[in-house]
Amino acid sequence: MAYTGHTPWHGLGQQLIPHQPLEVWQRAAGMDWHIEASPVRYFNGSDVLHTFPEQHVLHRSDSHAPLAVVSSRYQVVQPKEILEFYRDLRNR
Predict the structure, then answer these.
(1) Scanning 24, 33, 56, 73, which has the fewest C-beta atoms within 10 Å of its C-beta?
(2) Closest among 90, 73, 69, 83 to 34, alpha carbons compared
(3) How does strand 2-3 pair with strand 14-15?
């Protein structure tokens, strides 16, 4: 999390000076990674690895930590896209 002005009530986050580029906000908020998708794979009691094409595991590009299992139709929204949305909303 990153913020300008007064420290939030919870005391968390990085304080930034106003009007920083989006990349600075992304780094300070810990959102400088991408969501990647990998196929779901499993063993069904044999030594053969099967793929379940209708599902994907979403994971972080930096730590490879799993985020969710989603259908193949799920459309990923990247962390940077979320920041861009709020930046555009603020600029209205």
Answers:
(1) 73
(2) 83
(3) parallel
